[in-house]
Design brief:
mainly alpha
Length: 264
């Protein structure tokens, strides 16, 4: 419960920090530059009817839908980096010999308590990781049931539950990956609506309002879909890292513990 609360507070503070930083950057840099660029382009078009304005990132990213997409994307990447760091720390234990079992050593049910004390001797941070928990569960079950099969099943159940837990913790990131393109479509609808409101001016020959509305539509869609691809890429990489952690933990338990277990 304590770990879940600390993770929630970390994600909340990260979201607030991202909102403040991105909002400040948009207010101080993005929107002033976009306004200046658009004003310069309008002046150039007034002087030269054949002038074709260039598309710049400042103008493309200036609207509110794009700002929200950027905020959600940065926050999702920070959350995934936190999850990846936790998985990397858990994976580092796979390089250590936690039980110190020499080759050919046999572990009997009555010996399980000795090896359980080695797991209990780890610091609290490492003891709560997947590998120590899987080893502890297997040894405890072996000592209680005197069955290698039960010990193997207990370790695999622990790994399976951890895999499901890790997958469930990515639910919010998956929601963000879905919400980003949805926000892009909101900008598309808003831009089309503004274009329709300026349709009467287009009939009179002034198409600036219609083109501005269409610019909002295409720009929001472009930014949202691009950021969605980036977030999905990192999400799949994180899922791959977590799945490999669970599979490699199962292999570790099989090779470093289960094959040493024997019943008289």
């Amino acid at each position: 419960m304590k770990n879940n609360r600390s993770e929630f507070m970390y994600e909340l503070y990260a979201l607030l920090a991202v909102i403040l930083v991105i909002q400040g950057f948009y207010t101080a840099v993005v929107r002033p530059r976009a306004v200046a660029i658009l004003a310069a382009q309008q002046a150039a078009m007034a002087k030269d009817p054949e002038y074709v304005p260039e598309r710049t990132l400042w103008v493309i990213a200036k609207d509110y839908e794009q700002e929200v997409c950027v905020i959600l994307s940065f926050w999702a990447v920070i959350v995934m980096a936190f999850r990846a760091r936790s998985a990397s720390r858990a994976r580092a234990l796979l390089e250590q010999d936690l039980l110190h079992l020499p080759e050919g050593m046999r572990v009997l049910p009555e010996d399980s308590r000795e090896y359980l004390r080695q797991i209990e001797g780890l610091d609290a941070g490492r003891r709560g990781m997947l590998l120590p928990r899987a080893l502890f569960t297997a040894l405890e079950r072996f000592g209680a049931t005197r069955s290698v099969q039960d010990a193997s099943a207990a370790a695999r159940n622990t790994c399976q539950m951890e895999n499901e837990r890790l997958d469930s913790e990515l639910a919010m990131v998956r929601f963000v990956a879905w919400a980003i393109p949805a926000l892009g479509f909101v900008g598309t609808v808003r831009g089309i609506g503004e274009s329709l409101q300026q349709a009467h001016r287009a009939i009179e020959g002034d198409v600036s309002g219609v083109t501005a509305g269409l610019g909002i539509s295409f720009n929001s869609t472009l930014i949202a879909l691009t950021l969605s691809i980036v977030v999905m890429f990192f999400l799949h990489q994180l899922q791959l890292l977590q799945e490999r952690l669970v599979l490699d933990t199962e292999n570790y338990v099989d090779e470093r513990l289960l094959r040493h277990l024997h019943v008289r």
